[in-house]
Amino acid sequence: MTLPGPGDVVRYVKESGLWRSLFRQPYPTTSRTRALAVMNNVFLHLHPVRVKKHAVRYTYTFCLGGISFFLFLMLTVTGVYLMFFYVPSVARAYQDIISIENAVAFGQLTRNMHRWAAHLMVLTVFLHMIRVFYHGAYKPPREFNWTIGVLLLFSTLWLSFTGYLLPWDQIAFWAITVGTNMATYAPFLSRESSFWLLGGITVDQGTLIRFYVMHVIAFPLIAAILMVVHFWRIRKDGGISGPV
Amino acid sequence: MSQLPTYGEVHGPPIGEMTRRTFMRRLIGWGVGLLSLEFLAGTFAFTWPNVRGGLGGKVVLGSATDIVGASPDWATGQPYSYQKARIFLVNVPAGEALVDGKTDNVPDPKKNVLALYRKCPHLGCQIPQLCDKSHWFECLCHGSKYTILGEKRAGPAPRGMDRFPFTIENGIYVVDTGKLEDGPPIGTETFDKRTIDQMPHCAA
Predict the structure, then answer these.
(1) Residue B41, C-beta contacts closer than 8 angstroms, at least 6 positions apart
(2) Which one of A16, A128, A219, B121 has the lowest number of neighbouring Cβ atoms within 10 Å?
(3) Contact list, B86 vs chain A (CB under 8 Å)
């Protein structure tokens, strides 16, 4: 009796139903199998099978949209970590931030990553918009995607604004006081909009929990849905716009 | 021109009539639209702030005796700061006497009080207790100044201090912090006609 060699084990694994359900075509060596590999994979299929040469030149896009998306993912991950220690209560919030910084392993790193990524995301989204504008990439057939992009800008700004209150320090309190005061200058529903935003008539517990919910659930979800449409539309509109 | 049907033409219903399919489609369309609107309205109703008994609702301050008990110099004109309602309760007759440099003891001014909201109508800072030097309310953030009746005298504020309506039920003061009333417009001078350069101030 001979023991099975390494080659037999590899063959056994590769012929198993589990392996073949995960890898549905042989190793891609031709144009056709490469295309198949991309199309058969849920993560890869988001990418086009072929990309125009000008589109991968870094100085054409500076990858600003990609960086914004990367920062969004980073914010999601670091945000989930921070949620383990942060309680949105006026009695605890500030103390929780202090203890994240001083008592939690990698807490200061996580919080700083979240904060800096948030600042950077506002910047990269803004620069991305400028890049698209100066390339004229908002023109037909991409005008719908430009609109989605504007909504994503608003989502980014709103996420930034709601997150600003959460440390519950002086700058947070007064920033939201001034910010929500602006709502009182809105036409028709001036006091109502401020009342609804604040969850009362001043920045208080009602405001903190409201902003927290919008920051950690409502707007990340809205932004994610908009991003799905945004990325899909790039493909549907013929990829990254060509040089004028 | 001939009316020959072209290839692939879909025959529609005669003008003025509706097919069963169109009827059903419109019914579903309007139904889903209506439900979405109801859901949106329900969301706003659900998330509408609940302020019963706290700031934004009706706040009970107690009787005049309670207030004098909590803050004895209220009877001689010092505004009573009630933090739960974020107000200064101004004893108007005693307060006017205080500004005039007299001492008038009014332990129960009845309806003759003002519930001034402490949030500065400029940018929302909390206005501190009456300035001892000027007997004005002086916001430390940007220097808006108001008389003891909340009438604007100086600074960047767009109007006088906002105020809440109040009721006296069986001698108990109840302030309705849900109904903020705009402060008097700039130029209102019912009392204390001093100008900014006539006395020292707490805020620059």
Answers:
(1) none
(2) A16
(3) 202
CATH number, domain with residue A138: 1.20.810.10
- Chain B nearest C-alpha distance from A201 (Å): 6
Interface confidence, given as ipTM, is 0.73
What CA–CA distance (Å, rounded) separates A231 from A240?
10
Structure tokens at B83: 């933090």
Q: Over the stretch B181-190, which tens digit does the pLDDT of each residue have?
A: 999 999 999 9
- CA B49 to chain A, closest CA, distance in angstroms equals 5
How many structural domains are present in chain B?
1
DSSP state of A153: H
Flag the least confident range among A44-58, A113-127, A205-219: A44-58
Contacts of B124 in chain A (CB under 8 A): 177-178, 181
Number of CB atoms found within 10 A of residue B49's CB: 19
Structural domain that includes position A77: 63-236
Interface contact flag, A191 B86, Cβ < 8 Å: no
pLDDT of residue B3: 67
- Describe chain A by its helix, strand, coil percentages, rounded to 5: 70, 0, 30
Smallest CA–CA distance from B123 into chain A, residue: A178
Distance CA A75, CA A95 (A): 22
What CA–CA distance (Å, rounded) separates A171 from A161?
12
Q: Which range of residues forms the domain containing residue B80?
A: 58-198
Q: The domain that contains B121 carries what CATH number?
A: 2.102.10.10
Look at residue A27 and tell me if it is in a domain.
Answer: no
Q: What is the tens place of the pLDDT at every residue in B133-160?
A: 999 999 999 999 999 999 999 999 999 9
As a whole number, the mean pLDDT across chain A is 92
Question: pLDDT category, A23, cuts 50, 70, 90?
Answer: confident
